Amino acid sequence: MVTVMVTIAASQPEVTAGAQTRRALSRSVRQLASVAVDQPEGSAAAGALAVAVIQEGGPSFVRPALRAALRAEGTFVERETSPHLLRAEVVGRPPQLAVSLRLWRRGWDLVTPEPTWIYTAPWCVVAAAVIGAVLASVTRAIAVGVWVAALLAQLASMAMPWPAGGLGRPTWGAWTRQGPVVSCWVDALQGWVVAYVLATGTVFAALAWFYDRQVGRPDGSRGLASSVTRASVISIGGLTWIEAAGRFGVLALDTTWSGRLALLLLVLVWADAVRAVAAKDKQRGP
To answer: pTM for the complete prediction?
Structure first.
């Protein structure tokens, strides 16, 4: 099962890598935009700065991914010729890329604070999740399966090699800060997304509590404290896996048919694990 899931998740790698690159570059584009909008020259339209995009090194899909990120952000508009040059310095080949963005205009030079590190290997976290689902069924404990999947995914993110080059190798903490989960929290400190994330966590906890009550022992020995503790452990483990999954490009699987199939199979595997655990718990006596 693990081999089949990994094979499906690893197919069409260039399409998946392109989608992952676009998502990763969006944050770097926003960082540049927050400074570039203060420049008085070069506006092509209201709020839009005309730039000529230049890619230095790396695979061909980086430039289209950067263009898509520019269009989505809205501060920049691409032109064939412009006094503003947006350079993308790329080191490495898929699945490991490091991209540094530099906005240049006569007399001033803006560079993103750190390179954007992109590692497109969704099969790593898919394999971790499948192993976790199997262990959840064997041990009759959803929490064990969730945390095994989360720890395997995080260990994979620490062990993966990075390309050698002038952009260096990220620390685990630096790469984590660029991931969609942590960066969302950082960006949300000044916005309404915090409320959304807290609401999502509450829903996860409520679902886990409901599950606990449904499969509780006939004598009702599982009380509220036990349910809340179990729900918290499962929720934190799930978020830990999701954090690693976001950095490895699981969201990009939605751009290919094989990726969608892998996600569907992953959901079915975990649904079967939950069903098996619930059935076994129902059979337990007092």
So the answer is: 0.74
13-119 topology per CATH: Rossmann fold (3.40.50)
What is the distance between the alpha carbons of residues 31 and 115, in angstroms, rounded to a whole number? Answer: 12
Closest CA to 232 of 204, 210, 195, 197: 204
Per-domain residue ranges of the chain: 13-119, 120-283
63-98 confidence digits (pLDDT tens): 999 999 888 888 888 888 888 888 898 888 878 888
- Indicate the SS3 state at residue 91: strand
Closest CA to 67 of 43, 37, 41, 101: 101
Tell me, rounded to whole angstroms, the distance of Cα 257 from its chain centroid.
Answer: 19
d(CA 258, CA 274): 24
19-28 confidence digits (pLDDT tens): 888 888 888 8
